[in-house]
Here is the input.
Amino acid sequence: MSGVAARTAERTYAAVMNVPERPMRWAQARLGTGRLAWLFVAPNLAIFGIFTFLPIAINFVYAFTGGPELMPADRAVIGLANLRELLSCSNYLNPNTCTRDIFWDGVWNTLRFVVLQVGLMILFSLITALVLNRKVIGRGFFRAAFFYPVLLSPVVVALIWKWILQRYGVLNAVATDVGLHPVDWLLNGSSAFSWTVFVSIWAHMGFYTLILLAGLQAIPADIYEAAAMDAAPPWRTFRRITLPLLMPSMLVVLVLGLIRAVQIFDEVYVLTGGGPGTATTYLVQFIYQTGFAAQVREYGLAAAASLLLAGVLLVLTLVQLRATRGSR
Amino acid sequence: MRSMGVAAALVAAISLAPAAQAAVQLRITCYSDGNECPITKELAARFTQQNPDIQIEIDEVPYSAILQSLPVQLASGNGPDIARVTLFGSVQRYMLDLRPYLKDADQWEANFGPELEWMRSGPNDHGIYGLMTQLTVTSPFVDKTLFDQANVPLPGPKATWDDWAAAVAKVAKATNTPFGMAWDRSGHRFAGPAISYGAKYLSPDGKPAVIDDGFKAMASRWVKWNQDGTADKSIWAAQASGYGDAFADFQNAKIVLYLSGSWQLNRMVKQIGDSFDWEVVPNPCGPTTCTGMPGGAAFVAFKETKHPAEVARFLDWMEQPAIYTEFMAKTLNIPASAAVRKAGVNYDLPSAGKAAMQALLQNADSLAPLAYKLQGYHYNATIFNATADRLSQVIAGDMTLDQAYQRITEDINQALAAAK
Amino acid sequence: MTSAAQLLTARRGRFRADWTDWVSYAYLILGVIVMFGPVLWLFASSFKSEAGLNQFPPTLLPWQPTQVQVAGQPAPLPLVRVLTGAHAGEELAEVRRIGLIAQLVDPRTPNQVIRLRADAIKPVMQVRAAWDNYTGLFSKFNFLRYLFNSVFITVVATLITLLINSMAAFALSKYRFRGRDGVFLLMIATLMIPPTIILVPNFLIASALGLVNSLWGVILPGVATPTGVFLLRQYMLTLPDDLIEAARMDNASEWRIYWRIVLPLSAPALAVLAIFSVMWRWNEFLWPLIVLTRNEHFTLPLALYSFQGELTTSWNYILSMTVITLLPVTIIFILLQRRITQGIASAGVK
Here is the structure.
């Protein structure tokens, strides 16, 4: 930035920030430094309160009421009926035996998706981080290349891949060039499922790669030199030294990745619409369809399903945190 | 003297200044199939010129916003004065009865009779809730060039869907076309052939009774055609829910017959043009009848509007035969107004398009009464979605036909129970 | 050290060209192709005409039928090359096609009609970008207004986000107060709520507050990001406390400490949050779609999406719209990627 621009920016910044100086000093005198902290947190907390916690509370109201009305005050209380309807199955492993078969399709599909996607994504992120950790020419460029898809909106991501994977798309063009038959990639259940896993990894792994890379670079060099001097075999060095020191970063990646994977919706919805059949219908899509897209919106059912989802996520996260704390 | 002159000038200026009139502002939420919203804007500007006390603002939104955001906005009191809507059931309870405000309600009744039923809440409701901006009719488009190349004659006007399926399969084989036909992924599209094969959809008291012999007859055929390659199964099976159209298939000559509707005419003319010969054929028959499904979007007014009289004035103006005809001509739509249909509209179309429009008008005139009734049933979207979603699952191999029949009935019952 | 060991434990060390290096570079280059390739393909496709898009196999460059103006014809006609027969090799203009027969004229002798079978001719293609995929977007509506709305929302929301998130992060990292950990956990817990389910309640609240149809209704609900607080807090935890203590001893108010010391020192993390915020706000679609009903308040993504009517899907506009939507983010990325990647790295470590 040029000198003049920098100085004007600095001056405006100082001018603006000086405005609350007086009232804040006054507040500090009245509340003391300790309680002043609440004032700092207040704006953020207020927005959270109004636009996140309050809606969650309203969501609870929806979950335990029924009827087509939008206004919570107009709805009839039905207690656990929504939850009971969601959870009624003669055989939990076979969605076809459930009252709400799409919900259970969503549950099992999401489970498979999460295990596969998070597992593979961490694996590839780790490999990429390890490779990037070496002395490579143009490391900044490669690092940026892996990160770019993270910045794209999920709708853009889905449209790009939908365009590539369609029957008359470029992937099939390449396939015919090498002599294979063009495939309807998104028309076969397991193939479509695999592609949703792939696209999701494509769109997000860059972010986790960076975290792991930073974790690797934080490991002091002398530890490796010590291991080298002890003539330790490389695999053991990796397992005994690198991996444990990388654990905190791995944990961050695992928790964040899991939370995101369980809530998968936008890119899949645009890519496959949940099809073929219900092969790629995940939980949040069920919630969206029931609460928004159906002609008769069942707000109560959608809210109840979202409660179940949040509950599962909470349990998972706590379990992870507990597990890693125990291993320390 | 001078001060008198100044005073006189002031008085003149004040008296010549327009009286401070608060112009009424009307908001219309509109979506376009082709160019309906821009044309409406043009016409609205002309209306304001003739009626300076009413200003009209048109908000063009995607169709999904009409389906999803509009009901929520209306429920919370934030809706527009008028909206262009297709699924009247979702917003019926918010609609305004225009009858008291219209200049000549009987004329509306005469011109739009059957379609007015669609917007009413029940048989005892005689309100007039909106102006139909189009009448759409589902119809098959066929690639005549492929028929010529295969040397197969087009089935006649009384041919059944079985005849057509056999014919297009033959043509596809002879010309190396991947598939014989494709239908848009929509239970509404399916309903036409189903009714032709005897499906009744509704019981005599107006409640849904979807699974009957006629429905099963067409459902089993449709699934079979998808599975044996007569139809392109990727259109239906590729999605779990939602709409999908097969225009690209038809444009690329990957299918011989495309069951879609009159709203595609604009696209056919502009994008296919004369790259191959295409025609609209009469809706194929079944043992019961030969019909498609009607449809169409209307400008409906809402109760919460602060200016019901002005809303009615605008819609009355649009309904005039001269304006309505111009609207139809510019948007290439079939008029819903019986008077305009009788007088005929002069569309600016090339000859292929003109022939197609004739065929579409004929199909519109031969719709079965049951089709009209089904289009007017408030929860028909539930029926259509259940049909499309569950049959897609059968085509994709997720369940059997019998399971699908059961699920369709359950889906509809669940939705109706939740709607109480 | 063996080369395998180098792979697993490498640091900035000596450069030795062995097989692990080749494998590494191959992997990285493959990664670049897989990551950038699809976007470049999108970009290339966005310049094709709708007919061109429907061609299979697809070509890299946008090919369109060449058109030629012939005297006596109102519109330009497509140029075709004759493959077989008496006129083989000639380039004629196609007037119309009826069934399997095409009517052609030589542009030099426009009055003489030649009739040939449709399979004896082939269109003459040329590479021409279909700019009207883009200009069509602009000419159809008031692009500048929507651009202004998008920019306004993005800039204002980002500034507010930076301010209140850093204030909260400051408090959560540099102070001890009862309930501190609880507040922090509460904020993180909100990450687990899929945004879909709070859409409708949020709309009810926004409408009760009179925020519907206002740009502020789009800005306000999303400014308190848990990710932002998390990121900034992690970074601020690493700032040495002695600077703050020293300032306190100089009788500086806490507010002054905040904006004079802590904020400037947190610049890397703030930059990362700013970039994320710009990205989130620019790409926002579903919430603005619900909360904005008046045309003049539409953001660019909303306005661009308004092409899709009930029953049609036109890829050419979808593609160009997608390119425009990812352009700002891409530009910022190109200019600031080093900052972003460094920032995330440092936040992730701590």
Remarks:
- Chain A touches chain C through 109 residues (CB under 8 Å).
